[in-house]
Write a structure and sequence with these properties.
The complex is a heterodimer. Chain A is mostly helical. Chain A has helices at 11-37, 54-61, 63-96, 102-114, 117-131, 137-162, 165-173, 178-189, 191-206, 210-215, 223-233, 237-265. The chains are: A mainly alpha, B alpha+beta.
């Protein structure tokens, strides 16, 4: 352990500067946009001349924003369900299954994480146009499920791996049919993993914009897509308000995930 | 013997090309405590899992009370099982764990509550019903698992090395509990272990497993006194196998034996598995307890005492023969006399406590 903090001497200052700079870079845009969403200036003047909730009122009364938020929510929830179900079945296959190619499958399941999103978006767009899924809810859910699935798979397979199969066997020998044993014993035992997979899946769909832009149609727009589209037309504080809400929900979900991880680690 | 309660018939289980169980047959009486004893990978657990239904055997049959149970899925076999690892349902309280098999069977709430109390009393954990499994020690968890497995009065209880994760002192304690529970409930128990002491202490009979087969079934005393094979002789109880350079077969299944240093021993009984001929290699099995220092300086096998350990009532000594083979002696402490480590000595043994194995 040569490189410990205590031995760094003058380098400590440099470390502190870098750390503070990183924090500022990460936080300032968020704080800035939240501040602007409460500012009274229509032209996004900073610092705001006065404070107001007007832009949030606008949001709440504008059907476009409400529809987009509802669409985001609907797609996010559908993606969550699909991705967790797929995550459970895929994890069962890879962790419990005994067939050649399991490791290959494990790697394959993670490819959506490493594939450039824009490549995936273009490819999916072209494919969906051809099969008539472009601009449809089903297409949207499928595309986002592909993106969310690797995260659900990792979380669920990790908790399934650390769950002793003998416990499920014990339940079966106690007289529970295998499916009952799985649902009543295994599922509750890995519930933290399942919940965290669900939250992750929802978040990935909730703030995803690249694929969403390709999948969206005038009738079907998610919140990030609408923010992006609105930005191109006009720079209004309403966008700042919408962004703030997006950030807030993401933040809350991330905090729940962090709390779950702490309980998982115990 | 009348119809056996549990019958395992020529059971075979292949994993790919490898036979984990290779033709196991066994008859178990009702209420019997029978241990499967053997080294790891000898097929004892696989046999148990086949009875449980967690593995399907490749061929053979398992019959309970005269009927094959192989067609019955594990959850309908009504068999109790305690596993090597802790298998309490982690999200359920102790009482809910014991209640689980009863709930599945559709018992009424009052019946379940009564039975759970009975089981907690049986495994001596009254008052622990509302604890979570994680709050219990390993020994307590295995006792709850035992209570859960017995709650529905299974005809057979399977135990797969349930104490191997516990330390020695706790193991001894729970062995006593298991014996008591076997006596109170009268349940038929199949018990897998690789610990011969545990098998000897608990069981009515022991089946010794090796390479997917049963080498011998019998009481601990029978296995010790009359091992059917060289493997059983080596596995049950301590034993020395001395090299033999020549064998001259005599009458009555006995032989004169010469050891590599020229020492000759008369009247050594052939083991039943031997061909009783003069040709071929052989080994002389002698229990450490049968070996004694010879009183005279001339008779017996000359050895060097490498190490001598005082163990209270007994003394254990590691000896080296003149051809460099090590073997053990164990004798009452007061008979050791002036012998000490580093000295030369001569040892002898009672010919009836030996077996001559031919290879």
């Amino acid at each position: 352990m040569l490189l410990t903090y205590d031995r760094m001497g003058g380098l400590k200052v440099v470390l502190w500067v870098i750390a503070v700079a990183v924090c500022i870079f990460l936080l300032v845009p968020i704080i800035f946009i939240i501040a602007l969403s409460f500012g009274s200036s229509k032209w996004l003047a900073f610092p705001p001349p006065a404070w107001t909730l007007r832009w949030y009122q606008d949001l709440a009364t504008d059907p476009r924003w409400l529809t987009a938020a509802f669409t985001s929510l609907k797609i996010g929830l559908l993606v969550t369900i699909c991705s967790v179900l797929l995550g459970v079945t895929a994890s069962l296959a890879v962790i419990r299954g005994r067939f050649p190619g399991r490791q290959f499958l494990r790697g394959l399941f993670l490819t959506p994480m490493v594939l450039p999103v824009v490549v995936f978006a273009v490819a999916t767009y072209l494919l969906f146009l051809r099969v008539g899924l472009g601009g449809t809810l089903i297409g949207f859910v499928i595309a986002h499920t592909v993106l969310a699935f690797p995260f659900a798979f990792i979380t669920i397979s990790t908790s399934l791996e650390s769950f002793d199969k003998s416990i499920e066997d014990a339940a079966v020998l106690c007289g529970a049919p295998p499916i009952v044993a799985f649902l009543k014993i295994t599922v509750p035992s890995i519930r933290l993993g399942l919940l965290s997979a669900a939250l992750f899946s929802f978040l990935i769909s909730w703030d995803e914009v690249v694929v969403a832009i390709f999948m969206a149609s005038p009738e079907l727009q998610t919140l990030p897509v609408l923010i992006w589209a609105a930005l191109r037309q006009e720079l209004s504080p309403t966008i700042a308000a919408a962004s703030s809400i997006l950030v807030l929900i993401t933040l809350v979900l991330m905090m729940i995930i962090a709390a779950l991880r702490r309980r998982l680690a115990e | 013997m009348s119809q056996p309660f549990l019958l395992i018939q020529d059971l075979r289980k292949l994993f790919g090309e490898v036979a984990a169980v290779d033709g196991v047959s066994l008859q178990v009486r009702k209420g019997e405590f029978l241990s499967f004893l053997g080294p790891s990978g000898s097929g004892k657990s696989t046999t148990l899992y086949a009875v449980a239904g967690l593995y399907n055997p490749t061929s053979g049959d398992v019959m309970l009370d005269g009927r094959s149970i192989l067609g019955t899925p594990p959850h309908r076999r009504n068999i109790g099982m305690v596993f090597q690892r802790y298998t309490l349902f982690p999200h359920l309280k102790v009482a809910e764990n014991i209640a689980f098999p009863l709930r599945v069977r559709g018992w009424t709430t009052t019946d379940i509550a009564r039975r759970v109390e009975e089981m907690l009393a049986l495994v001596r954990l009254e008052g622990y019903g509302s604890r979570m499994p994680a709050q219990l020690s390993g020994g307590q968890q295995q006792r709850v698992a035992l209570g859960r497995a017995l709650a529905y009065d299974p005809p057979v209880l399977l135990m797969d090395e349930p104490l191997s994760a516990l330390d020695k002192k706790l193991r001894d304690e729970i062995q006593v509990e298991i014996r008591r529970i076997h006596q109170t409930t009268g349940v038929t128990i199949l018990y897998v272990t690789h610990d011969q002491e545990e098998a000897l202490r608990l069981s009515d009979r022991i089946a010794v497993f090796n390479h997917g087969r049963i080498e011998q079934v019998g009481t601990g005393r029978e296995l010790y006194a009359n091992p059917a094979t060289r493997f059983v002789a080596g596995f049950v109880g301590d034993s020395n196998f001395l090299m033999v350079s020549s064998v001259i077969a005599g009458p009555g299944g006995r032989a004169a034996v010469t050891l590599p240093d020229g020492s000759a021993f008369q009247d050594i009984p052939f083991h039943a598995s031997s061909r009783e001929t003069t040709t071929g290699g052989a080994e002389l099995m002698v229990r450490p307890q049968a070996v004694r220092f010879s009183p005279g300086a001339q008779a017996g096998l000359p050895v060097k005492i490498k190490d001598l350990t005082f163990l209270g009532d007994t003394v254990s000594a590691l000896l080296t023969t003149q051809w460099g083979q090590e073997f053990w002696l164990r004798m009452p402490a007061q008979e050791v006399g002036s012998h000490a480590a580093g000295q030369d000595a001569r040892v002898t043994w009672n010919a009836d406590g030996c077996h001559l194995f031919q290879t």
